[in-house]
Specification:
478 residues, alpha/beta, Aminopeptidase, Alpha-Beta Plaits, six-stranded mixed beta sheet, 13 helices, 18 strands
Length: 478
């Protein structure tokens, strides 16, 4: 017994030593950066964003025809508001509604960069209108905010980039590197007719960019336990997107004589089985990079966990949602309260972790549910795109730009749970990143696609200044 106790004690000492060694050797990956000048734009920018919001460029579904009056009106507004941009940059309309601006650089040996955003917005649920501070498409400006659908997702970014270009042109700035501004019109319903067509067009011209920047990253405030500093999340990749319809067909019957297996009961059991048997959590890129960058900035005991994923893998990956998620979103079946339906259906949405595919998710569903359930893919589907790297020159420039503008901010790579138009651009770009300095906290994050979407004037100024400096910092690099 004594030997056993000594052996256990020795094992405990070794374990503690390993944990402490890994924790203490974890050093900060935050880069030093020269402070960048704060650029202030006039109050007119608030009016410009406000006006942009009034154009109801709503995407409803993949098959719906865009509202041409709204989109063409928005295009005319851009031309009138940014005259220097439209005089000095070439503009092509791709597939009628998407926009591609080209600002030719003076040095053709430099690879271009692509700055992305999208014009379309999601609809507003009519029952929520009374919960808004102002009408969603009014574009109301208060003492502190601009309110309206699209301020956060994603007209705010588009207007910021165009404001930055207009200001640079007013300063007679001539880029050495060609800059593309790509703005799709259907991001909210998959981007297949917008961003995908822009990529086809650029590819046909032989364009190979050094870097593409899109929405999807942010500055998190008070959202990381134990960390008081803001955390800038540069998303290196994103999850895939797929929905599957579960269909159960039976002979139905009268509710007074129900069969042992009811149509709706079979469907309900399939949903429960999928929720109880979800795909596993996995430590995949860029989750590993996120741990390495975030870990050194945490309090000691949390840092110990982050620096030892071999032991605390389950807790870490669950906290980061590092698996393919399962979410029932639509259910339908039945016509009368005393009739057992012959058909019942449910739609399950999956956000697919890098390393898994649409096909592997469908195989998982089919192996989990009863063979009485038919499984069919439905709607827009996309596999996870490749993951960008933290080792590139482009990432280093982006990192230094953020640190130069917001000293004390912790810069961390991450994985976006949603889908963006940027996934199409890997075909023509060495690296694809998702970041603009939109400040997010536990309250404001619910406003994406939600009630009372708005952005503060101060934060909008930050996005403007970031866009201005981003162009210059990339242009000055080799």
């Amino acid at each position: 017994m004594k030997k056993i106790l000594l052996g256990l004690l020795l094992a405990l000492v070794v374990l503690v030593a390993i944990l402490l060694f890994n924790t203490l050797r974890l050093s900060s990956k935050q880069v030093e950066a020269e402070p960048l000048e704060k650029i202030t734009f006039s109050d007119q920018v608030y009016q410009n964003l406000s006006k942009a919001i009034t154009y109801q460029t709503i995407s409803v579904s993949e098959d719906a025809i865009p509202d041409s009056a709204a989109f063409f009106g928005f295009h005319r507004f851009l031309a009138e508001t940014y005259p220097l941009t439209h005089a000095h940059l070439s503009l092509e309309k791709i597939n009628t509604y998407s926009l591609l601006y080209t600002w030719e650089g003076s040095d053709p040996s430099k690879k271009p960069i692509i700055l992305m955003s999208h014009q379309d917005v999601v609809p507003v649920d009519q029952p929520t209108l009374e919960a808004w501070e102002a009408a969603p498409f009014e574009g109301k400006i208060t003492d502190t905010h601009i309110i309206g659908r699209g301020t956060m997702d994603d007209k705010g970014t588009l207007i910021a980039v165009l404001e930055a270009v207009e200001k640079l042109l007013s300063e007679n700035y001539v880029p050495t590197r060609t800059i593309y501004i790509a703005s799709g019109h259907d991001e909210e319903v998959g981007g297949g007719k917008g961003a995908a067509k822009i990529v086809e067009h650029l590819k046909s011209q032989g364009v190979q960019a050094a870097m593409t920047m899109d929405e999807g990253g942010y500055i998190a405030e008070n959202m990381v336990p134990g960390v008081t500093a803001p955390v800038a999340i540069i998303n290196l990749g994103e999850k895939g997107f797929a929905s599957f319809r579960l269909i159960v067909e039976t002979t139905g019957g009268h509710s007074s004589a129900p069969p042992r297996e009811n149509t709706i009961g079979i469907l309900a059991q399939a949903i429960v089985d999928l929720e109880n048997n979800q795909l596993p959590y996995k430590l995949v890129p860029p989750i590993d990079s996120q741990l390495a960058y975030m870990g050194p900035e945490l309090p000691f005991f949390t840092r110990l966990v982050f620096s030892n994923p071999w032991l605390f893998k389950k807790q870490l990956l669950e906290g980061l949602n590092a698996h393919t998620t399962t979410a029932p979103t639509i259910i339908d079946g039945g016509v009368k309260n005393n009739v057992i339906p012959t058909v019942a259906e449910a739609t399950i949405n999956f956000r697919i972790l890098p390393g898994e595919t649409i096909e592997s998710v469908q195989a998982h569903i089919e192996s989990t549910v009863s063979d009485k359930v038919r499984v069919e893919p439905v709607g827009f589907l996309t596999n996870p795109p490749q993951v960008s790297t933290v080792d590139s020159e482009s990432y280093k420039i982006l990192e230094k730009t953020i640190r130069g503008l917001y000293p004390g901010t912790i810069v961390v790579p991450g994985l976006l749970g949603g889908a963006t138009d940027s996934r199409y651009f890997y075909e023509i770009s060495e690296e694809v990143y998702r970041f603009y300095p939109m400040r997010i906290n536990s309250e404001s994050i619910t406003r994406f696609h939600g009630i009372d979407e708005k952005i503060s004037k101060d934060n909008f100024q930050e996005i403007l200044g970031f866009s201005y400096h981003l162009i210059k910092e990339f242009d000055q690099a080799n």
